[in-house]
Fold this protein.
Amino acid sequence: MISSSPERDPLLLDLIQNAKKRLGVRQIAGGIGLRKPLHKICVTHYANLADIYNFTFQESICIIPWRTIQLSGRANKKSVNLSDVILKGSLKAVSCIAVSGSDELADSLIQSMGYSENLFFTSSYDEFHLESRLIGLLRENSERWKILSGGLVNVDGFGLLITGESGLGKTSCALELVKHGHRWIADDVVVVQKKRDGLLYGRRYDLNFPLLEIKGRGVAHAEEVMSYSSIMPETRLDLTIELVEDIKNKGNKESDAFFKYLNIMDVQIPCIKMLAEKDIKCMADNVEKCVRNFR
């Protein structure tokens, strides 16, 4: 792995290596990608390989579905083959090729790379999911944005991010807090921005469509389950509460600590572990008390 340093901007390879889990990366091959600033790189996906010749943008990450590559190998002689595209040097201006919906690259593809500077990787995600995550990742690193997972609410003017494993009741707890008179900002995908005052502010991914996923109901518009006045566009991020199934406060590991600080874009955000309760009302009461005591 090529590590980044304060003296230079991180390479695209650095970024992919450090976000393997987030991008569902299964295999990385090829070169390091073009040495271009990350804010100049765009992301696009292709329905078929022939589009690469006609619509490839310079300094881009091209996402190609694995099913497209499979079909091209079975088609007639006039079809476009990814190995041929690489060998002909048609992707010299491309920073990276991502093969979606695949665990590994075919041996023929790896051999065709040779000394290519193109970075290649496979992802278990489909092209749409991968495109969304790549765009968010590039935006974070070029514009001081970061995408966090959790529920964001404003409790008595205090910005609270509720995190934890899936199924522990983050969304349900946030909705219960709204019933207590607090305000909701985002569910699941929280966009955090570091502003000029040096503080962090969180909002939902799409301000025009406040959506949340409710257990047993599915995705719903926020105004279907709460009043318009209960919805905020943005809040300062002051505290994180991590819901856990059990609390191990051994003090030997940072991950076991009941209280710690999270470093988010060089801003220290307090994080408190809290036991997830099956009784959502009780859990919301505990969250409310925790926030008020912390203030």
